Amino acid sequence: MNKNVKVTLPKIPAVLEEGSFRDIYSDEDFSLMNSEITGETIEDIELDQAIVSKVVFRNVTLTNAMLPRVDLTDVIFDNCNLSNVNFNEGIIHRVKFIDCKLMGTDFTEANLGNVLFENSRAHFSSYVDTRLKQVEFTSTSLQNANYHGCQFTKTAFVQCDVNEANFVQTRLNGVDISTCHFERIHVDFETLEGCVVSQEQAIGFAKLLGLNVADE
């Protein structure tokens, strides 16, 4: 955990009812609340503005899921496969993704607040024009992730693989990537100012600027 980013974790009731994701169709507002869902595979879902609150998903797979403008509040995804799920323009608040597959998952133009990504694989995930506030990515593989045009507020990357990630047109002031691994990332040097980097990373960026770094 990054000491400068305090993520408020999901507020989950001590007792939840066992449920199914398909229960969401029983509500005229397409809402799912106060449930624990385990071991399901849900295919070919397309729901606009669905509401999911105080729900724990364990070992759940969503396939061909289109959930634009979804409202996720106080939700835990534990060991779930959410690859290629569409969360475009969603409101995602107090949500935890732990040990999840998020390959190609699309958060474009979403609002993420108090969200934790932990020990997950999120290659090619997209956060284009997304607002992230109080968000932490820890021990998560973000190879080729796309953060183009993001707004970061108190966002941290802790021991993540961000190789080939795209941060073009994204201000990185105050964003800490010092513990992350990458051979190459895509940034604008004018928006890199204030980014927290390690000494080794600083030397790498200096070389990209054409500076000759003298050996001590």
From TrEMBL:
Gene3D superfamilies: E3 ubiquitin-protein ligase SopA. SUPFAM superfamilies: Pentapeptide repeat-like (SSF141571). It comes from the Bacteria. Pfam families: Pentapeptide, Pentapeptide_4. InterPro entries: 5peptide_repeat, PA_immunity-related. This is Pentapeptide repeat-containing protein. PANTHER family: ANTIBIOTIC RESISTANCE PROTEIN MCBG, PENTAPEPTIDE REPEAT-CONTAINING PROTEIN.
